[in-house]
């Protein structure tokens, strides 16, 4: 077993491309940590720096309490599984799995026994005498896993090991990886861009975007209590509703979120109210998952929005409704583009706040909806996405009212960070 600590680790590729930006992260002994994020966010770069396949530009890597920045890969006791298995084509399955032990000059009888035993656990014992070219994708990944596991390293690093497999095989192997790795108790860092894989496999998930760590927590923590708007949006199987609001505290009676044509009031008894009131007169972003909104009759007097149904969409197990409610759409705030950043440039500066200024500049306190600039590419009216379950209660063109579950709305600063701090 092994712990991994990344202390302000930075990777700059040639051409000043900042692939990983001052990242702090810790994987505990025996933990299954998943690195999640969109393609190109720096997950593989991070994994390769831990393996010693990529140099660290700045910051420190500690493996089991030992500074490992310059430790050669072979001295790290790390096994890596890649997306494509990368097996030796002229060796049999047994030969591939045995290879790391043969290199280590282990006793041949012991090697034979361990490989046979492990092949049963991985359900490839029938294929031991075959060559990789005759195996299915799922079998090849099992062999690759076997080869990584066979010498019981201190650390497993897995880089999208399931992404080349079909959906059924992915689910099956996902469950097996989880059971196997946990039974061995080896610290595992697993890279994926698939939120379902991350949520189902991880003890904890670390989410990256554009080389910047966004959030770390258990799957339930980051799903229910995300640190940033990006995390909330990334972990949403449907699109997250993200709206801009002005904060007001009229006569100090309550906190008002003013969306222009719609308003929501939050009583002072709400634990988030004080933190939000600190932004009085300013703008915030409000995130709502489509299942935090529910159709209600027009007479409903609780927190709600009203609008017109623009479209309904059938998803097999559910219907989604797109409501036109006259509120401006807000893009999910992102860290600055790494291609435009010099190494050592200040994080979070420039591009993003500039975007927010442009977005909000035309919004006047009283009637933000009047100021929409549809042609500018910045303001357009948002569709509010509402999850309807398996019955489409509306038809396109209907007037519609939705109740807002205030306990489930998430409130972010214009740069995307949560206003009320997430619990970790
Ligand atoms: P992910 O694994 O999240 O898809 P990567 O870590 O592979 O992302 O890449 C992060 C960014 O760094 C990408 O934009 C990629 O194009 C860039 N990158 C990766 N490897 C190199 C390299 N050797 N030289 C220059 N840029 C690279």
Automatic annotation (TrEMBL):
Keywords (A to Z) from UniProt: ATP-binding, Nucleotide-binding, Sugar transport, Transport
InterPro entries membership: AAA+_ATPase, ABC_transporter-like_ATP-bd, ABC_transporter-like_CS, ABC_transpr_MalK-like, ABC_transpr_MalK/UgpC-like, Mo/tungstate-bd_C_term_dom, P-loop_NTPase
Region called Disordered, residue ranges: 333-354
Keyword S-adenosyl-L-methionine included in the entry's annotation: no
SMART domains assigned to the protein according to its UniProt record, in alphabetical order: AAA
Domain ABC transporter per the UniProt entry, residue ranges: 4-235
One GO cellular component, as annotated: ATP-binding cassette (ABC) transporter complex, substrate-binding subunit-containing
Biological process, per Gene Ontology: carbohydrate transport
Annotated protein name in UniProt: Multiple sugar transport system ATP-binding protein
The species this protein was found in: Nonomuraea wenchangensis
């Amino acid at each position: 077993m092994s712990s991994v600590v990344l202390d302000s680790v930075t990777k700059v590729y040639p051409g000043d491309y900042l692939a990983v930006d001052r990242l702090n992260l810790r994987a505990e002994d025996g933990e299954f940590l998943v690195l999640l994020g969109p393609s190109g966010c720096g997950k593989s770069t991070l994994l390769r720096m831990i393996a010693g396949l990529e140099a660290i530009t700045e910051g420190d890597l500690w493996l089991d309490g030992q500074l490992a920045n310059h430790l050669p890969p072979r001295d790290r006791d790390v096994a890596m599984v890649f997306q494509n298995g990368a097996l030796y084509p002229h060796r049999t399955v047994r030969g591939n799995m045995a290879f790391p032990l043969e290199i280590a000059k282990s006793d041949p009888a012991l090697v034979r026994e361990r490989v046979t035993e492990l092949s049963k656990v991985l359900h490839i014992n029938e294929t031991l005498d075959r060559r990789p070219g005759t195996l299915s994708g799922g079998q090849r990944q099992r062999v690759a896993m076997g080869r990584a596991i066979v010498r019981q390293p201190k650390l497993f690093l897995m880089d999208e090991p399931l992404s080349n497999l079909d959906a059924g095989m992915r689910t099956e192997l996902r469950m097996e990886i989880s059971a196997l790795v946990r039974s061995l108790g080896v610290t595992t860092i697993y890279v994926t861009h698939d939120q379902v894989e991350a949520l189902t496999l991880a003890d904890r998930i670390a989410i990256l975007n554009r080389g910047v760590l966004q959030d770390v927590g258990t799957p339930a923590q980051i799903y229910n209590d995300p640190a940033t708007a990006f995390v909330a949006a990334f972990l949403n199987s449907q699109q997250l509703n993200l709206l801009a609001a002005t904060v007001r505290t009229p006569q100090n009676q309550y906190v008002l979120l003013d969306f222009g044509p719609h308003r929501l009031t939050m009583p002072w008894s709400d634990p988030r109210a004080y933190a939000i009131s600190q932004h009085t007169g300013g703008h915030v972003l409000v995130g709502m998952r489509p299942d935090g909104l529910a159709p209600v009759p027009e007479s409903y007097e609780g927190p709600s929005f009203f609008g017109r149904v623009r479209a309904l969409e059938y998803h097999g197990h559910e219907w989604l409704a797109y409501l036109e409610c006259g509120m401006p759409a807000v893009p999910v705030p992102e860290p600055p583009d790494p291609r435009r950043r010099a190494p050592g440039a200040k994080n979070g500066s420039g591009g993003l706040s500039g975007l927010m200024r442009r977005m909000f500049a035309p919004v006047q306190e009283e009637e933000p909806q009047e100021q929409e600039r549809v042609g500018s590419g910045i303001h357009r009216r948002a569709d509010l996405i509402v999850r309807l379950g398996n019955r489409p209660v509306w038809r396109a063109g209907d007037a519609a009212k939705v109740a807002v579950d205030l306990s489930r709305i998430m409130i972010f600063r214009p740069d995307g960070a949560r206003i009320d701090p997430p619990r970790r």
